[in-house]
Amino acid sequence: MMKELFQHTAITEGIVVRVAVNFLPEQSRVEAGKWFWVYHIRIENMSDHAVQLLTRHWRITDGQGLVNFVEGEGVVGEQPLLAPGESHDYVSGCPLTTPQGSMEGHYTFLRDDGEEIRAAIPFFPLAAPATAG
């Protein structure tokens, strides 16, 4: 299995969020104005406390500056509980109507001592490779 290259990282109070993003031409319909990316996120708990992911908050910006906010419980239907040293991986996707854009945001975690932590999701660009017209 090929080791994925995580291009973007943010660390908040011992919670490490790593992102790898790839453009998927086979899921895109450029002629119809639809571009699609897949992103792989690894959340690592490097703190001394168990933490549970409660919610996600995304800010998705397209190439024309239009901002879309996406919020909800957990990630891909899960609210993983991570003991110190554990990690959780998931893969999701993002469609845009422009060939470039960006994503960033945060997760809300509940620590085992009752404290809520707002862990940053690093800013990452969404960029389709240039195609000869």
Measure the end-to-end span: 35 Å
Count of discrete domains: 1
* Spans of at least 5 consecutive residues with low confidence: none
Mean pLDDT: 94
CATH topology assignment = Immunoglobulin-like
Biggest sheet architecture: 5 strands, antiparallel
Number of strands: 9
The CATH homology group name:
ApaG domain
Q: What CATH architecture do you see? A: Sandwich
What gross morphology would you assign? elongated
Task: Give a short summary of the structure.
This protein is mainly beta and 133 residues long. The chain has no helices and nine strands. The strands form two sheets. Strands 4, 5, 6, 8 and 9 form a five-stranded antiparallel β-sheet that branches. A four-stranded antiparallel β-sheet has the order 1-2-3-7, with no helix packed on it.
Overall description:
The protein has 133 residues and is an all-beta fold. It has one domain: Sandwich (Immunoglobulin-like), CATH 2.60.40.1470. The protein is built from no helices and nine strands. The chain has strands at residues 8-12, 15-23, 35-45, 51-62, 67-73, 81-82, 87-96, 100-111, 116-127. The strands form two sheets. Strands 4, 5, 6, 8 and 9 form a five-stranded antiparallel β-sheet that branches. A four-stranded antiparallel β-sheet has the order 1-2-3-7, with no helix packed on it. A hairpin with a 2-residue loop joins strand 1 (8-12) and strand 2 (15-23). It is elongated and about 50 Å long. It starts with 7 loop residues before the first strand and ends in a 6-residue tail after the last strand.
